[in-house]
Amino acid sequence: MKNNKFLDGLRSALRTIGRWLSPVWSVIRNFLKKYWHRYQLTRWVIVAFLTLFLIMSAYLTFEAKTANVGNLKAALSQPTLIMDKHDEKAGSLYSQKGDWVDLDKISPNVQNAVVATEDRNFYKEYGFSIKGIGRAAVMFVMNKVMRRGYISGGGSTLTQQLVKNAFLSQQQTFTRKAREIFLSVEVENVYSKQDILAMYLNNAYFGNGVWGVQDAAKRYFGVNASDLTVPQAAIIAGMLTNPSGYNPADHPDNARDRRNVVLGLMAETGKITKSQADQYRQTPVITYDDYHYEDTYKFPYYFDSVISEAINRYGLTESEIMNRGYKIYTYLDQNNQRGMEQTFENDANFPNNANDGTKVQASSVAVDPKTGGVEAVVGGRGKHVFRGFNRATQIKRQPGSTLKPIAVYTPALSNGFDYDSNLQDKLKSYGTNKYRPANYNDQYSGQLPMYQALAQSKNAPAVWLLNKIGVNKGYESVQKFGLKPDKEDKNLALALGGLTNGISPLQLAGAYTAFANDGNLAQTGFIRKIVDASGNVIVDNTPQTKRIMSTKVAKTMTSMMLGVFNSADGTGAGAEPAGYQIAGKTGSTEADGTGSTDATKDKWIIGYTPDVVVATWEGFDDTNKAHHLENITGVGMNGMFQSEMSSILPNTKQTKFDTQNAATLAKNEQSPSNLWDDIQNGTSSIQDNISQGTDSIKQKAGEWFDDAKKAITGQ
User: How far apart are CA 520 and CA 482, in angstroms?
Assistant: First the structure.
């Protein structure tokens, strides 16, 4: 009764709509009668349709011809290799590859079962099936009517399935289907049916993380692909439509039922007799796992970074990188990488976990200052996740005092100061907001030479000096070093590492390459070159360096930063390995809202020699009252850094610095007075300005001379 009322109401509504649309349809009908034949609109519709079809066909043909189909077999038959700085194999990448076997190593039983099940006209058609296209068109129309944005089914040929897996996404759309057809024709133009079948069977997925028929044979039956029996081959073929649901290890009953269907199809195509099919259906499903997976993803954080750089810098996709058989030549130093990883695996190098078990996190990166090439990287502690968060390249944390050499001391040297210039070391307020930087433990000496202020990481002298040279000079210097401060960072807090957006260890290491490389800033990267499976070079990266300060300033900065590690009162004391000399800086940032004056959010150490720059960060991913470090001086991680550098420095050329510790220089030399010393001694301001101007001119002349020398000699 209710249904009748509903139908009556529906009919009434349709009649109402019909009456409302009737005048509209009358106008449209009269218009068509009047103009359709007069202007031969049928012909124009046909011309428009054919033109659109021609343009689309031309585009798809061009795409197929430029898809590097000729490289497909080589790409599928070998993994992507990662080569180190010495052009030696470091490992390989693949996500959809097993052990490749040629077709003559694959049982004919498998070939017959797959062709009978997936594409029985495989040897007769040319890449696509007219019937399949018809079915796809019907399904397309049905899905459009039902407002679905995809094609279901479609009866793709083996060649189309190969193309879909190798070149295209799995998204089922009309556009992808059209591309699939044109690419399939191109594949048929280049390869024989035997090659296509071999590529398909080696590139197919068989569940449980197993790719390729050889590994599937080992995983489910403990034999080689060449030894698969007819019942086993039928199970292998049956898995292609649903690898998870039909694999015999997890679902033996489903696998048996599907096998029996495949056996029937093999009998229909004459590959076996009906009596043989009946006999094979009685065979029990017996599995045996003899599959051994070798993890060739040897250095996970480094390999992750290589993939990310290939995607972000060179425009490749993850699928291409993992499955196209490239050789990727990198700057990886396997000894340095192993040493860094061993340091991170030793929990004794790090503070205890938080009370709830949360690990103190850390990350490190080692860079060649001459090329900018990353030789080693570790992005965190604990279990690695494929292409997960890499703290060495992705964190954004305030760098603390590691920014002082960049934002304060380098521009000061470039503007008339010297390494032993006296700086004011007093608690002092600046500006209308009364900015009042304090030293650790509120200890002040009144004044001290610049090299001591840096080595002891004093805050008050650094801010005083930035105020003297001008915040703009410090801000511009940070930009020159390749960092990207926010406009809001243009204030005195910049002297203490106040960067709104923060930086990563990789960015910090890249900035410090300028100190280690005589004033030349190197662009950092992981990849030197990428070669495709056919031997064509598709990426060739030439190291890029840029002079941002004179050799003299760089050398003076190094002499000052040597004191950070080899002076008794330096903040890096104890972090320098025995028998080696390193320069660099420590840094830390305060943790707010913890209730502890010693609570620390970030700890940094960066150290370098002429051969390598190593930057290390330590802290919690999320800093709060229950998760923070202690001891804001940064000394707590010095032992870890010493262990790290002890494993890296022996692998370098062990080039010596061509300068001495600034403290030693100060004892041996009488440095001329400078502008601010003269002010303290009562010299007139006019004389002071002349003195500073002269120093600046000398500095610029020195920079020009260094640039000219480099242009002539290439050094």
Answer: 11
* Nearest one of 599, 582, 639, 561 to 401, comparing CA atoms: 561
What sign has the CA pseudo-torsion 634, 640, 642, 647? negative
Give the C-alpha separation, 49 to 182, whole Å: 19
**Residue 537, Cβ density class (10 Å: 0-12 exposed, 13-18 middle, ≥19 buried):** exposed
Q: What is the DSSP letter of 303?
A: H
Distance from C-alpha of 245 to C-alpha of 15, rounded to nearest angstrom: 50
pLDDT at 682: 39
Helices (H), 269-379: 274-281, 300-312, 318-323, 334-345
3-state secondary structure of 669: coil
**Which residues participate in catalysis according to the annotation?**
118, 401
Residues 464, 468, 474, 477, CA torsion sign: negative
| Residue 90 three-state SS | strand
Taking CA 336 as the corner, what is the angle to CA 86 and CA 655, rounded to the nearest 5 degrees? 80
Distances (CA, A) of 433 to 53, 436, 492: 70, 9, 11
Beta-bridge partners for 531: 327, 537
Whether the CB-CB separation of 408 and 495 falls below 8 Å is answered with yes
pLDDT score of 484: 94
Q: Where are the domains of the chain?
A: 20-66, 95-282, 400-502
**In this structure, is the dihedral angle defined by the CA atoms of residues 82, 83, 89 and 90, taken in order, positive or negative?**
negative
Residues 39, 43, 44, 45: what is their CA dihedral angle, to the nearest 10 degrees?
A: 120
Specify the CATH superfamily of domain 400-502: DD-peptidase/beta-lactamase superfamily (3.40.710.10)
Q: What is the pTM of this model?
A: 0.80
Residue 158: CA count within 13 A, CB half-sphere? 32
pLDDT at site 426: 95
β-pair partners for 537: 531
Angle, helices 158-167/174-190, rounded to nearest 10 degrees? 110
Residues in the chain with pLDDT < 50? 149-154, 634, 671-676, 678-699, 702, 705, 709-710, 712-715
- Amino acid identity, position 46: I
Whats the size of the chain, residue-wise? 715
Instruction: Give the model's pLDDT for residue 468.
Output: 96
Helix 230-238 / helix 108-118 crossing angle, nearest 10 deg = 40
Average pLDDT, the chain: 85
Per-residue HEC secondary structure of 354-376 comes to CCCCCCCEEEEEEECCCCCEEEE
Between the CA of residue 287 and those of 111, 116, 237, 407, 506, what are the distances in Å?
20, 23, 15, 67, 49
d(CA 438, CA 463): 10
Q: Look at phi and psi of residue 241 and say left if phi exceeds 0, alpha if psi is from -120 to 50, else beta.
A: alpha
Position 123 scores a pLDDT of: 87
Q: What is the pLDDT of residue 679?
A: 44
Paired tokens of 30: 């009269």
Token digits for 70?
């000729």
DSSP state of 482: T
The closest alpha carbon to 92, from 100, 83, 81, belongs to 81
The span from the CA of 715 to the CA of 710, in Å, is 5
Please give the span between the terminal C-alpha atoms of the chain, in angstroms, as a whole number: 96
Asked whether the beta carbons of 81 and 89 are under 8 A apart, the reply is: yes
What pLDDT does residue 634 have? 46
Residues 630-678: tens digit of each pLDDT: 765 545 799 999 999 999 999 999 999 999 999 999 988 754 444 445 4
Structural contact between residues 232 and 221, judged by C-beta atoms closer than 8 angstroms: yes
Scored b (16 or more CB within 10 A) or e, 553-574 reads bbbbbbbbbbbbbbbeebbbbe
Tell me the CATH architecture of domain 95-282: Orthogonal Bundle (1.10)
